[in-house]
Amino acid sequence: MTSFNQIDDYGQEKLWKTQKQLAPRKRKNQIAALVEDALSKSSFEKYSSKARESLASWAPDCIGFNLIEAVLCHICRKERPGAVLVFMTGWENISSLRDQLKAILF
To answer: For the chain, which residues make up each domain, given as ranges?
Structure first.
């Protein structure tokens, strides 16, 4: 190591890292922002009150296992044979959804 390639943990590099770690992180991702924007610009007057209530309570940070289950069941009942790929974050979410889907009797 030389004096030119060492990182000074007490200098500017350390300060930058600390500020970055303490800065509030944006919780919304790009998809959540797009969905919220579309929902705010849409008129849902033709939908039932239950549908409007469901749309109003949408939470981008919450994975709706029941919604995923309902969509997959609909696809299995109405569509032709094939495959569906569901992307999820974290093994815990994947395992929970798998367990929930295993409990369904077709």
So the answer is: 8-60, 63-106
